[in-house]
Amino acid sequence: MRSFPFLLLAGFALTLMTTLPVSADTGYKIGLQTGSMSEAYAAENLTNAEVMGYDTLYNASEALKQGEVEFVLGNHTLLKNYENENLTVVDTFNYEEFDIGVLASVDSPLIAGVDDLNKSKTIPRMAHTPTEVEEGDQFTAWIYAEENVTSVTFFVCTLEVPYTCYKPETLESNDTANGLFEFTYVAKPDDYPGYRYVLEKDDNSTEKIPKDEYGDYDGMIVANIFDSYYFKVKVKGEEIENPNTNETVELKPPTAVAGDNITVDSGDSVQFNGTGTDEDGTIVKYEWDFDGDGIFEWSSTENGRELNIYNSAGTYTATLRVTDNDGNTALDSLAITVEEVKEEIEEETIEEDEETLAGQCTCPDGSKGQMVGPADDDGVDDGCLCATSEDDSSLPSVSMIPALILIGIIALRRRY
Any residues with CB less than 8 A from the CB of 248 and at least 6 apart, and which? Predict the structure, then answer.
């Protein structure tokens, strides 16, 4: 959404007006390439100049040699091709950003003028233009950010009743050039706009600009509205006596709800259902820090629903952060207890069958003997071969057992 940076060349235009002789009839003469960015700039900012358009920069430089124009405005890199002992390229204070330069005679008063400008002026870190607006007017605001800034969010609010705040706009650093973040806004009916920035850095920290009403913001008016600070854009016809309002306005911050604590097994998916509400606006951003390290690994402008998996046992703190359309935030946390999964080993219960050895019987003294006949109800097995004495407690040898069994069978047949 970057537009042509007319604003940043304003200092250069001022130098032209104060260093070059200007005719009452036509002003100074500028040569440039037709259809170029330089032509658009001249039409917007050098209205007192007589602009001479040429098909190429070469033709414009030839016109400069012939004295038909006083200097050539064009692409800085390309103009370098036409330098010689009589012509030189002036490095304007913003050429590194936008590759704009001026080809002029070495004895031109423009040379000294721009050199002075380079020594005394720098591109402001932030500014906006025009300085005052009315309904339907568009103003452009920009800010130069350091390399560690990953994104800039631009907030606009009406600084008078009903204190309306509009949906913020965010630019990522990879969508900009040379650290320049530029935003535009169109004034609405009964609008007294003010704007501010929130810078998000690569360490996940944020910085609000303006920080307070007493910051060093050269040429910019800071308004204090419900404990937030805004750069004020003047409305045409408005008399500003005290830019800092003392009116107390209740600002209702958003509310974040992370949800109930959760217990899961390691490796299971956890469903997060974070929500947020804002009584005087809307939630514009949801973020989750899943492990409590202060880094919000996930974000969405739609909702706070997301899945996460914890592979290691332990207790984790997950934090939900919501941001409303005023740029205010709210936090809420929940605990996730992750339990280690134990391998379930089925212990087979071995039931030992206490089977009586085949052919064993109970002797009168309670010892075991060898069954050789039938048993009755007296608890003693008749035909139970028992030890005859304490010294001879052993059972018959295996070779005798068949004979004894046969005797038992004969006795059984005679009984029945």
Answer: 226
Is there a shared CATH topology between the 7-120 domain and the 255-339 domain? no
Q: What is the CATH number of domain 7-120?
A: 3.40.190.10
Q: Please identify which residue in the block is written with the tokens 């973040």.
A: 181
Give the closest residue to 256 by CA, choosing from 335, 168, 329, 336.
329
Where do the structural domains in the chain lie, given as residue ranges? Answer: 7-120, 126-235, 255-339, 360-415
Largest CA distance in the chain: 158
CB atoms within 10 A of CB 361: 19
Please tell me the distance from the alpha carbon of residue 13 to that of residue 371, in angstroms, as a whole number: 128
The letter for the amino acid at 71 is F
The CA distance from 337 to 331, in Å, is 20
pTM: 0.39
CATH code of the domain made up of 126-235: 2.60.40.1930
Domain 255-339 has CATH 1.20.120.80: no
In a 10 Å sphere around its CB, with 0-12 CB exposed, 13-18 middle and 19+ buried, how is residue 89 labelled?
A: buried
Can you tell me the distance from the alpha carbon of 49 to that of 64, in angstroms, rounded to the nearest whole number? 15
Label residue 402 by pLDDT band (50, 70, 90): low
Q: Give per-residue pLDDT as tens, 122-168.
A: 445 788 888 788 888 888 888 888 888 999 999 998 888 777 888 88
Query: Cα(164)–Cα(304) distance, rounded to whole angstroms?
Result: 25
